[in-house]
Amino acid sequence: MKRRRVGRREHADPFMEELNPGDASEPEGRGTGGAVTDYDGDGMLDLILSHGESMAQPLSVFKGKQGLKNHWLRVIPRTKYGAFARGAKVVLYTKKSGAHLRIIDGGSGYLCEMEPVAHFGLDTDECIQFPFVCPREKPICINTYGGYKCRPNRRCNRGFEPNEDGTACVAVAQDST
Q1: Which of 24, 29, 52, 157 has the fewest Cβ atoms within 10 angstroms?
Q2: How many Cβ atoms sit within 10 Å of the Cβ of residue 38?
Q3: 6 CB contacts (<8 Å, ≥6 apart)?
Q4: Sign of CA dihedral 48, 44, 126, 158
Q5: Where are the domains of the chain?
Q6: Which residues contact 26 (CB under 8 A, 6 or more apart)?
Q7: pTM for the model
Q8: DSSP states of 76-103 as a string?
């Protein structure tokens, strides 16, 4: 059974990709719902599928296997009364890749309920771990989400800095505080 996923690349039109769910394919599931949570507390997100709209069926748990060496951060926002802060916006800022946004919600509806946690995967900082990863013609290493890229060492006049790909100089934003 194939599934489709719609994705989006930076500065490009959306694309549709055929996926093979592999072990998660459950054609006999009746009224399937799903949730993503850290089921066993190892920092990796796991997939839990529930069944049983028209008859009793067991839960299925699929453990994540990729990213075992990565680091993870879980944030559990609460209201001032201690309840889970559903609807909260959680933003994590990192030096390497900027802002990462999560919205705490209750899931998508019938048979689905999500853990009210903002879960952030923090991958490897290749530019620090492998400082000589870039070639001489593009010696500046910039971390990106899930990897890195190299750019030329462009020099700019005072008040300007290289753009993201190092092809031009752009004005430095002035701090208004």
Answers
A1: 157
A2: 16
A3: 14, 15, 16, 17
A4: positive
A5: 3-122, 126-171
A6: 32, 49, 51, 60
A7: 0.48
A8: --B-TTSSB-TT-EEEEEETTTEEEEEE
Dump pLDDT digits (tens) for 141-171.
777 766 677 888 888 888 888 887 778 888 8
Our CA dihedral for 88, 92, 97, 103, rounded to 10 degrees, sits at -20
CA torsion, ordered 152, 158, 161, 167, to nearest 10 deg: -50
CA distance 100 to 91: 5
Count of C-beta atoms within a 10 Å radius of residue 39 = 17
- CATH number of the domain located at residue range(s) 126-171 in this protein: 2.10.25
Q: What is the pLDDT averaged over residues 3-23?
A: 67
**Is the torsion defined by CA of 117, 98, 4, 88 positive or negative?**
positive
